[in-house]
């Protein structure tokens, strides 16, 4: 138990000890003797008590006093503890916190908040005591305990100091003063050792009294210190460099300092320290003058940030595994800690740093691992990585496939239990144990996943034909499919959708891409990134620079995001020599939330010079009382706590600032800025003391504290006195600020998304962006939100998504949530809140009523049906019906993520339009890992998806269904075998009542999965009903004739071709797009097909542009339902779809992002009704 540092000072009559470590009583011991506890007491003679924590660091500090501990635990501490050990509740020793603390085994431990550096409070400490063995539990109650040994004399050589000893009063009576008369602490003078002759050799000046540096009596160092951004740095400390770090001076209010006696010999090294800045070490240059002048500039301290996290591993017993975390920051981390299932691992045993190596694995070592990196400025924790350990002969994948139903074509009716579905089987996704190389790696060189190892082709009897289908029969461990994650989307103004044209996109301060003319962008996500942080910068200065955290699908594929940007406010002119007040508030008829006050002469150029003149000022405020602003809010409102956890914030407003020289346009910084927050705008009393000022770090997307608030009453008018929270800040290199409070009342809401309103487990959709906006209701009016406080977006996986939300366990309506879901820019539909059943919503009726579930059209049927709102009530663990979702407590995230399908959850679904896909080899487009290596795979090569469409024009009074039947044409392995079927319904031309057109997908020709030989797909286009082929585009016909073989086209009711190998364009009526994501490729190709061009996009069908084939379909009077309609009606009734009522006039989006008209299949043969599209 090492005594690292001791200093004795007198406060009144009490003597205290400052230290960073453990304290042991002793007499006249030298510091080196404390390294060996055996010198004092052997382990056989002593024993430690349990850990005690009777106080918390709120108020004045953390006081773990022995008297208080004895009061609560009278028989668990001995009369005279020999030593005391202190650590934080997160296992950090007191010696590593950097905090100023007091320790005395006779009195206890205490840490005072006011003695800590500005902006920092004491940690929460626990203590334990070392006692003579056998004394615990059988204490002798005496009035005074024995005196401790005299403390070590701390006097320097030739000087005097004070030694102290203390004793404890063992009486617990109310009149203990009468039982324990006399002093508890005694002191005596002591003399330091004799001084030795100083051996310091000074080429200039002479040694100082401490013999620690050279002293030049006649020399003076003058200078100034500038903080980041060139602003003056008042309160900066100048110290000797080295181990002593003796304080020399502190800068004044202008950042100036004066250092007499410093020798300018070119070797004198000093250091400057300032809160939230990096220490600056500098050498006083050589000079023969009597005065030296120095100008110093500090750099901003960068908080620790986790660049890469440990990854999940699967191993067998006896193998090895390595976990790594890569942490950035300035200064970097000086300590790493690794935890297993929240228990700190012994560093001395495992010898870890940023890498944890586990050798000869055992079954009990399975579980969650994470690292915690820290330095004197703070800490950061990584995400947990799961280690799965299996036995030597235990299979790491379940060989039996899971049930997975695929929908069959409408003319393949099977049986009453599953009329149009067939179980093709699916292997559970997840990692497994594969072959490992001999090197320990943070990331396995080759990843292994559970997948299908055996399949069989089966035949399904349909009306007039046999439908082949591939079924998985056995699963096993194999190499994972290489996938790429992509984010794409569109950046536009929040007010009028004006696109961000040719804007720059930055990641970690480096430009990685830019937006197109229409604001679109596409970025491949780098490997090992947990949080994708992108900043959108408008070089035209129309929009506020916007930093967004974009969730992406870690399994691969594309995720679409709409980026909303605030337009910059028109600049106003300020006089730099005057006090300027700027109000912050955008809601008409409401008082401002806050205001900024800039004092006179506080504008500075970037070189630190004071600016005098006119200042062009643009301040854009995001007012949370305006719900429409939530989509344009920046980042994801998270910060890193002192313990390293990423925690949520609740906003009271964000503001972006832009100060420039009115003439030269040079950016300006501001020294002293006051933010005055109107206390009347804070409706939650608990938020008043927790309110802080924050700035956004654009590289990490995390908010960092800039300042505190204090309460003050200010008289504004003669009889009006208002209370404000006032915070001080500086405006330097960062330009986006936030008025926020940390909020710990969090829950998770379980949401699942589906392909249709049948809500089948196998029809869940991955890669959907679920967005939740937290609303704070007005008192007494839960349906009328006062303001939004936070927003979050999550990507759905195979089991849906768990979206964080504020919640409350006291009031059900304290917080509400507004939830939406989108896929590729297409808004999904929420389940209706009127005339519905719990079976459709996925939530029991009792909970629906408690949460006040409401779809957006609940009170007004004219509104969109693409969102729902609920009251977010924290679940009551004592009520069985609330333990099973759809809302989970913060600590139950794992239960939410792993909840079975039968558990309660909220639902979204895609509006099922007149489109159907069937693949002989099943493949889920939102899950690249579901790709199967087979000759009949629709997409022959993963991560290189080629979408092909053919435009078909229909002359006739009805919109009709058109099918493409795709079979192998020229490859010996596939000739005559079915790849798949596509059904699509034609869309009416709004200007021509008897003309419609359809963009029909077909299987592209090209190389198959083995990349050995190309196959020209045999495509057959089959319109439903009485149709006759009128014509084929001349260029397409010429191409097919010139590229033999030529398919037979004797039947005029259809069109057959061997699809072209070349990517033809709109002149041929063929539209081909290749992309790394199948949905993206299809969306782009479909948009071009609608537009009838090779490079455009449209949401309106242009029936006369870029047509490949034209059919004329005769009018036929409907006298009875067709077999197709009967089957459709039977399926709808069987699968219970009440929410589809009244949808005949609903509009939907075609494909994944383009709009088209929706009509239920029951009305396909009814009279046409002209409708707008898009």
From TrEMBL:
Pfam families: CILP, CILP_5th, CILP_8th, CILP_C, Ig_3, Mucin2_WxxW, TSP_1. Residues 1141-1174 are annotated as: Disordered. One of its GO terms (cellular component) is extracellular space. It comes from the Eukaryota. Residues 279-388 form the Ig-like domain. It is found in: Secreted, Extracellular space, Extracellular matrix. Residues 1158-1174 have a biased composition (Polar residues). Its main location: secreted. InterPro entries: CarboxyPept-like_regulatory (IPR008969), CILP-1/2_8th (IPR056257), CILP-1/2_b-sand_dom2 (IPR056256), CILP-1/2_C (IPR056258), CILP-1/2_dom (IPR056255), CILP1/CILP2 (IPR039675), Ig-like_dom (IPR007110), Ig-like_dom_sf (IPR036179). Keywords: Extracellular matrix, Glycoprotein, Secreted, Signal. This is Cartilage intermediate layer protein, nucleotide pyrophosphohydrolase. The gene is CILP.
């Amino acid at each position: 138990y090492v005594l690292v540092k001791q200093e004795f000072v007198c406060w009144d009559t009490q003597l205290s000890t400052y230290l960073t470590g453990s304290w042991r009583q002793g007499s006249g011991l030298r510091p080196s003797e404390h390294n060996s506890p055996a010198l004092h007491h052997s382990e056989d003679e002593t024993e430690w008590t349990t850990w005690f924590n009777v106080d918390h660091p709120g108020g004045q500090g953390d006081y773990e006093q022995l008297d208080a501990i004895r009061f609560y635990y009278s028989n668990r501490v001995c009369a005279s503890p020999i030593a005391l050990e202190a650590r934080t509740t997160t296992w950090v020793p007191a010696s590593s916190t950097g905090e100023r603390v007091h320790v005395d085994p006779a009195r206890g431990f205490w840490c005072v908040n006011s003695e800590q550096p500005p902006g920092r409070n004491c940690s929460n400490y626990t203590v334990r005591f070392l006692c003579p063995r056998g004394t615990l539990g059988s204490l002798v109650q005496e009035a005074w305990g024995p005196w401790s040994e005299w403390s070590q004399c701390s006097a320097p050589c030739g000087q005097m100091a004070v030694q102290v000893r203390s004793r404890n009063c063992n009486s617990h009576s109310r009149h203990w003063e009468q039982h324990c008369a006399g002093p508890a602490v005694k002191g005596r003078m002591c003399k330091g050792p004799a001084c030795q002759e100083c051996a310091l050799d000074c080429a200039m000046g002479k040694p100082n009294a401490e013999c620690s540096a050279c002293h030049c009596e006649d020399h003076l160092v003058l200078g100034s210190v500038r903080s980041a951004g060139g602003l003056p740095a008042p309160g900066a400390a100048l110290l000797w460099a080295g181990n002593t770090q003796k304080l020399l001076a502190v800068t004044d209010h202008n950042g100036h300092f004066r250092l007499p006696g410093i020798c300018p010999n070119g070797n004198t090294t000093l250091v400057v320290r300032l809160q939230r800045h990096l220490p600056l070490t500098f050498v006083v240059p050589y000079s023969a003058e009597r005065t030296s002048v120095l100008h110093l500039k500090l750099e901003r301290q960068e908080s620790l940030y986790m660049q890469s996290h440990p990854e999940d591993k699967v191993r067998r017993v006896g193998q090895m595994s390595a976990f790594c975390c890569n942490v950035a920051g300035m200064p970097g981390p000086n300590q790493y800690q690794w935890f297993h299932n929240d228990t700190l691992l012994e560093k001395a045993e495992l010898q870890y740093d940023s890498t944890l190596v586990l050798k000869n694995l055992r079954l009990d070592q399975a579980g969650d691992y994470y690292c915690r990196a820290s330095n004197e400025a703070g800490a950061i924790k990584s995400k947990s990585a799961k280690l799965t350990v299996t036995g030597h002969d235990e299979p790491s994948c379940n060989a039996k496939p899971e049930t997975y139903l695929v929908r069959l074509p409408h003319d393949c009716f099977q049986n009453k239990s599953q009329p149009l579905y067939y179980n093709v089987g699916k292997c559970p996704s997840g990692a497994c144990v594969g072959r490992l190389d001999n090197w320990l790696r943070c990331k396995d060189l080759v990843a292994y996943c559970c997948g299908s190892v055996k399949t069989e082709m089966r035949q399904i009897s349909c009306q007039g034909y046999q439908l082949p289908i591939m079924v998985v029969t056995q699963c096993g461990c194999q190499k994972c499919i290489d996938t790429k994650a992509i984010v794409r989307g569109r950046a536009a103004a929040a007010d009028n959708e004006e696109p961000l044209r040719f804007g720059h996109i930055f990641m970690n301060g480096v430009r990685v891409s830019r937006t197109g003319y229409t604001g679109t962008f596409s970025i491949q996500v780098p490997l090992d990134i947990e949080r994708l942080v992108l900043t959108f910068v408008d070089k035209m200065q129309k929009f506020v620079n916007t930093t967004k955290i974009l969730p992406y699908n870690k399994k691969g594929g594309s995720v679409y995001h709409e980026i909303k940007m605030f337009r910059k406010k028109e600049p106003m002119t300020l006089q730099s020599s005057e006090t300027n007040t700027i109000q912050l508030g955008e809601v008409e008829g409401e008082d401002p939330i806050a205001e900024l006050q800039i004092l006179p002469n506080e504008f500075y150029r970037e070189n630190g010079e004071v600016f005098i003149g006119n200042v062009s000022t643009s301040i854009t405020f995001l007012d949370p009382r305006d719900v429409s602003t939530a989509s344009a809010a920046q980042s994801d409102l998270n910060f890193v706590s002192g313990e390293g956890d990423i925690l949520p914030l609740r906003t009271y407003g964000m503001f972006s600032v832009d100060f420039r020289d009115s003439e030269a346009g040079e950016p300006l910084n501001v020294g002293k800025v006051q933010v005055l927050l109107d206390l009347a705008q804070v409706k939650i009393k608990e938020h008043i003391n927790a309110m802080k000022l924050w700035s956004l770090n654009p590289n990490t997307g995390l908010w960092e504290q800039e300042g505190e608030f204090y309460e003050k009453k200010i008289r504004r008018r003669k009889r009006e006195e208002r209370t404000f929270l006032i915070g001080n800040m500086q405006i330097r290199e960062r330009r986006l600020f936030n008025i926020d409070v940390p909020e710990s009342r969090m829950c998770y809401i379980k949401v699942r998304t589906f392909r249709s309103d049948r809500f089948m487990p196998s029809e869940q959709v991955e890669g959907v962006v679920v967005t939740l906006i937290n609303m704070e209701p007005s008192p007494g009016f839960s349906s009328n939100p006062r303001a939004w406080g936070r927003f979050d977006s999550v990507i759905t996986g195979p089991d849906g998504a768990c979206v964080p939300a504020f919640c409350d366990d006291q009031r059900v309506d304290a917080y509400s949530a507004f939830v939406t879901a989108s896929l590729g820019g297409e808004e999904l539909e929420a389940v209706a809140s009127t005339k519905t059943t719990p079976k459709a919503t996925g939530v029991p009726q009792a909970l629906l009523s408690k949460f006040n579930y409401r779809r957006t059209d609940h009170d007004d049927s004219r509104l969109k049906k693409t969102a729902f709102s609920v009251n977010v009530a924290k679940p009551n663990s004592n009520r069985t019906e609330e333990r099973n979702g759809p809302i989970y407590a913060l600590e139950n995230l794992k239960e939410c993520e792993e909840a079975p399908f039968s558990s309660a959850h909220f639902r979204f679904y895609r509006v099922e339009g007149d489109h159907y896909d069937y693949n002989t080899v099943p493949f889920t487009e939102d899950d690249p890992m579901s790709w199967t290596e087979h000759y009949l795979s629709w997409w022959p090569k993963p991560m290189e998806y080629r979408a092909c469409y053919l435009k078909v024009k229909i002359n006739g009074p009805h919109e009709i269904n058109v099918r493409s039947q795709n079979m192998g044409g020229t490859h010996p392995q596939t000739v005559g075998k079915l790849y798949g079927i596509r059904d699509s319904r034609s869309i009416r031309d709004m200007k021509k009542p008897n003309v419609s057109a359809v963009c029909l997908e077909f299987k592209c020709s090209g190389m198959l999965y083995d990349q050995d030989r190309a196959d020209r797909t045999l495509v057959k286009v089959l319109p439903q009903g009485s149709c006759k082929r009128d014509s084929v585009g001349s260029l397409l016909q010429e191409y097919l004739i010139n590229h033999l073989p030529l398919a037979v086209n004797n039947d005029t009711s259809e069109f057959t071709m061997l699809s072209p190998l070349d990517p033809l364009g709109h002149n041929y009526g063929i539209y081909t797009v290749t992309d790394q994501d199948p949905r993206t490729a299809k969306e782009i190709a479909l948009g071009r097909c609608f537009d009838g061009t090779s490079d455009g996009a449209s949401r309106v069908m242009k029936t006369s542009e870029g047509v490949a084939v034209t059919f004329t379909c005769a009018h036929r009077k409907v006298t009875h339902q067709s077999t197709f309609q009967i089957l459709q009606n039977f399926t709808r009734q069987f699968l219970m779809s009440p929410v589809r009522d009244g949808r005949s006039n609903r509009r939907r989006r075609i494909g994944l992002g383009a709009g088209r008209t929706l009509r239920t299949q029951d009305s396909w043969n009814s009279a046409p009704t002209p409708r707008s599209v898009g």
